[in-house]
Design a protein that fits this description.
Order of helices and strands: HHHEEEHEHEEEEEHEEEHEEHEHEH
Number of helices: 10
CATH topology of the largest domain: Aminopeptidase
Distance between the termini: 15 Å
Helix content: 25-40%
Shape: elongated
CATH architecture of the largest domain: 3-Layer(aba) Sandwich
Number of strands: 16
Radius of gyration: 23 Å
Largest sheet: 8 strands, mixed
Number of domains: 2
Structural class: alpha/beta
CATH superfamily of the largest domain: Zn peptidases
Strand order of the largest sheet: 1-2-4-3-5-16-6-15
């Protein structure tokens, strides 16, 4: 097999420069016009068949190998977060309130490096590689939008792989495992209507704050008392808004939160219990409630295919010692690459990118950063996985 690690290390200055440029110019989901333009121009300069505007701002490139064979898809996400940057990096965000706080700047640069590596070596492998530069991964449904726009057609991939830089793992440690890796995610909103009134006359009111507080407390009992201990689930209320004056009992309370699960039956149980808890508490107080589950924002769990995980592991073993390839407990964060994995067998891997001296801040933190030494390694891993899959079929 081609020594993609050596080739990627030669590209390291370019990969780092790309990453820093994207970091300085972050763009939110479905607004990645500058980023997508740079990616498309790069692919076209390499002679890669390129399609833009896929899922609004996504880019797809297809690299043909030397002979007929299977098609493998590699995903790289491009969007930033509405987070104000608080690093002291010389290439910090130039857009107030927007920051690459999850490593997608690195992912985009890695994808550009993979494109160059595979384009340069296309005479050495069969089949084709489909490069998916995805917008709006951060909860806005970018993967689903690309699927709707024909991502998985012309040609349809036989397998799919994705990599995420993880700054809370040691530099160079690779997580490859079959089965669940990241949870499904739901977004819900609850609106409670009571009867407002004077704070000095609570007997004339139905206190929406009191009702809402009881609802929040009761919701926490669902995971601890209804979900079997052998199963995994999280239910969190992240937002609670009510009232506006110290001496007025609020008529309305609004809350929003998230549910994280792996098993669809556990998800169904939680949703059923939430409805019953909400109905019971509001009825007891004479209040009314609306439960709004944002079904269109649902993100399925990331479940790695066993055979695809083995392909990723075998490819990585050619450049990493065995002790650097590991497994972890499944994460309760979500990732919409699951929209692809639900249609194509695939594997999602994590690569350690802990900065020197330890993580400055976790993912989605204003002080987040990555170790740029992980960038060429990530590019080599992804290129090697693609070629290994195509040669193996």
């Amino acid at each position: 097999m081609t020594d993609y690690l050596s080739l990627a290390r030669q590209l390291a200055p370019d990969i780092i420069a790309w990453r820093r440029d994207f970091h300085q110019h972050p763009e939110l989901g479905f607004e990645e016009f500058r980023t997508a333009g740079i990616v498309a121009e790069h692919l076209q300069a390499l002679g890669v068949e390129t399609r833009t505007g896929v899922g609004q701002t996504g880019v797809v490139g297809v690299i043909e190998g030397a002979s007929p064979g299977p098609t493998v898809l590699l995903r790289f996400d491009m969007d930033a977060l509405p987070v104000p940057e608080e690093t002291d990096l010389p290439f910090a965000s130039q857009h107030p309130g927007v920051m690459h706080a999850c490593g997608h700047d690195g992912h985009t640069a890695i994808g550009m490096a993979v494109a160059r590596l595979l384009a340069q070596t296309r005479e050495q492998w069969p089949g084709r590689v489909k490069l998916m530069f995805q917008p709006a991964e951060e909860g806005l449904g970018g993967a689903k939008a690309m699927v709707r726009d024909g991502l998985l057609k012309h040609p349809r991939p036989d397998a799919a792989f994705a990599l995420h830089l993880w700054n809370q793992l040691p530099l160079g440690q690779l997580v490859v495992q079959e089965g669940p890796l990241m949870s499904a995610a739901d977004h819900f909103e609850i609106s409670i209507k009571g009867k407002g009134g004077h704070g000095a006359a609570p007997e004339d009111t139905i206190d929406a704050v009191l009702v809402g507080a009881e609802v929040v407390n009761a919701l926490q009992s669902i995971v601890s008392r209804n979900v079997p201990p052998q199963d995994t689930a999280v239910l969190s209320v992240g937002s609670f808004r009510a009232g506006g004056a110290f001496n007025v009992i609020a008529e309305r309370a609004n809350m929003a939160g998230t549910i994280r699960t792996f098993d669809p039956e556990v998800r169904a149980l939680i949703l059923q219990r939430m409805q019953k808890v909400l109905t019971g508490i509001t009825a007891a107080h004479g209040a009314q409630a609306i439960f709004d589950l944002k079904e269109n924002e649902y993100t399925p769990a990331v479940i790695n295919d066993a055979s695809m995980a083995e392909i990723a592991r075998t490819a990585a073993q050619k450049m990493l010692p065995p002790e650097q390839i590991t497994e972890i407990r499944p994460l309760m964060v979500s990732e919409d690459m699951s929209e692809v994995f639900n249609r194509v067998p695939g594997c999602y891997v994590l690569l350690g990118a802990e900065p020197e001296g330890g993580a400055r801040g976790p993912h989605h933190n204003p002080r987040f950063d990555i170790n740029e030494d992980a960038l060429p390694l990530a590019a080599a891993i992804m290129a090697s996985i693609a070629v290994h899959f195509n040669r193996r079929q």
